Amino acid sequence: MLLLFYFAGFVAVGLAADAESLVGSISRDGADIIRKAQSGFGTVRQCSCAEQAECVEEMKRQANECNRPCFERFSKVTDRVDELFTCFDAKADIIERFLGCFEHQVDGCIQTSMGPQIPKTNISNLFTLAQSALERKDPTLDALLSPIKHILDSAGEWALCLKECFLGRNKHGFCFDRKGKIINYANFPKLDERKAQRSFKRCTHRIHWKDQAGDLCHCSANAGLTELNQYCLLFDHMKSARRHPQRG
């Protein structure tokens, strides 16, 4: 869930100068993150779909509870934080649709609570790796986004706050760990890196993410992040190109 907050936050501040490359890069990074987060942690029981549904709901609730306090990190760049938060909150149903699509497409659970052993994914390590991927420097992109570096810095602080808050709420074990202990061994959804990569691409396109990001960009600009206006035009262009494709 927090990975989606990271994605939404950075898309909102104009990281789609090359939209398709961005989705491809995120999906490739995501596959690499999953692979690294599963390295050296042994195996666990694959969770049932009922267990997954319950744990995903708990994680979404925790992330939502962390989100509003962490949003105050944007007070450094706008005095209209409440308006900015409303922009993101208005897209909550889109995030829900994406999550539902991804959960279905990635096919990580089974119907029985006596599933096979699969590689264990370390959730704490997953978030740390995701944060490192987002902080990775690209000289070309840095130059393109230099006018909004202060906004990106606040977005990074927001994402870090979300991560720390979420991990703090689970310092005694995640829902998947607790569910596993009921039958004496931990459980987790199966995260196949290739299937996750395909699912991410498919689900981002299904929710028309460029349109959603464009709306979010304009709303954020109107909430005080006026420097975003020049980047919002990119989304407008992409939306227009999709609806009125050129004919050769």
Short account of what is shown:
This protein has 248 residues and is mainly alpha-helical. It has helices spanning 2-12, 19-37, 49-70, 81-89, 92-106, 123-135, 139-144, 149-169, 175-182, 193-206, 209-222, 229-243; strands at 43-46, 117-119, 187-188. The chain is built from twelve helices and three strands, in the order ααβαααβααααβααα.
Describe the model.
There is one protein chain. This protein is mainly alpha-helical and 248 residues long. The protein has helices spanning 2-12, 19-37, 49-70, 81-89, 92-106, 123-135, 139-144, 149-169, 175-182, 193-206, 209-222, 229-243, and strands at residues 43-46, 117-119, 187-188. The chain has a three-stranded mixed sheet. The N and C termini lie far apart (41 Å). Residues 1-16 form the signal peptide.
